[in-house]
Amino acid sequence: MSTTSIATENHAVETADFLPLHGTDYIEFYVGNAKQAAYFYQSAFGFQPVAYAGPETGLMDRVSYVIRQGKVTFMLTTPLRTNNAIADHIYKHGDGVKVLALLVDDAADAWKQTTSRGGNSYMEPVVLSDDHGRVVMSGIHTYGDTVHLFIERKDYKGLFMPGFREWKGGSRATTVGLKHVDHCVGNVGWNQMNPWVKFYQDVMGFKNILSFDDKDISTEYSALMSKVMSNGNGYVKFPINEPAEGKKKSQVEEYLEFYNGEGVQHIAIATDNIIETVTELQRRGVEFLKIPSSYYDEVLERVGKIDEDLAPLRELGILIDRDNEGYLLQIFSKPLEDRPTLFFEFIQRKGALSFGKGNFKALFEALEREQELRGNL
Ligand code: FE2
Does position 8 have pLDDT exceeding 80, yes or no? Predict the structure, then answer.
């Protein structure tokens, strides 16, 4: 009897979430030179080659490389000709994230549910098939020129998706312990945070789980506001930032200026051992924001006892924060391209469910030092 009631309860939960998501399927970057970018993400961050599509597989206008580490899958796409929407995207934004693809059971239904709630269609449901089965994909627009694709791959047994072939090329670098995408942050324009919060609520059924205002996130010079949106099961989290008034130009404004519009600011990737991960990344030359040593003089008073020794955290520049559920360790890379736009965060959660509010001040001061060096503060 109890089985029946559990089944009924589960059913009730499922029907309440009109857009059930199983997490991030992949993130696609539009880049000027995918061959070189693929080598960079492999050699610096330990992604492994998975799949390739291009003229040899029947794709005449572009080349895409798929690389993976843990459950983090990136697609790096470059246009082969100038008269092409991908080329236009790169001309406008530089290298950046085009697609945040989400794993669903039913891509046609995801498209129907979101577009009927006001989502602007990017791709009507299409079925791609080969000898290994079928993948259904569809998509909607989000902030700036960024899109969400819904990927249904439950009937697909192949390597990645139809149209791609196995790719073993590139670097031979080993993995560094990256596990899954923790969250992806979008930067939007002045007064645009709340409209995009409403979009994620109304169109995608997300909830606003945390909010930060300019009093939480401000330094002497600049400020920003942020709201964290989460889907029903918490697998997909999209914080949305907008600039706030300060004495000088904020980091979000600098981003908007150099990306030439709204877009993905950072991708946070989870690791189970941030000290090992960051030690290896630094050995490979990945650059991180520098945190003043004084941060570590007081941090344990703020966060209490932690399992790790403080010395390697100080040495590597890893930040610590605590909330009611536990603590977290996090670090932020410098921008991944020459424009001060997209960067990575690496995060190890030890119970904490939050985003490092206690580190905002130290972090934003570090960002401002970089901004000032670029002459953009
Ligand atoms: Fe983050």
Answer: no
> Is 340 part of a structural domain of the chain?
yes
Which ranges in 17-53 belong to alpha helices (H)?
34-45
Output the CA 268–ligand 1 centroid distance in Å: 5
Tell whether 198 and 324 lie within a shared domain: yes
**Distance in Å, CA 238 to ligand 1 centroid:** 9
Measure 332 CA to ligand 1 centroid, in angstroms. Answer: 8
**What digits encode the pLDDT tens for the residues 336-356?**
999 999 999 999 999 999 988
| Ion ligand 1: protein residues whose beta carbon lies under 5 Å | 268, 345
Tell me, in angstroms, the distance from the centre of ligand 1 to residue 266's CA. Answer: 7
Per DSSP, the three-state class of 191 is coil
Instruction: Answer whether residue 241 shows pLDDT above 60.
Output: yes
The pTM (predicted TM-score) of the whole model is 0.93
DSSP H stretches of helix in the chain = 2-16, 34-45, 85-93, 107-116, 193-202, 251-259, 274-283, 295-303, 310-316, 360-373
Distance 258 CA to ligand 1 centre (A): 20
- CATH number for the domain that contains residue 218: 3.10.180.10
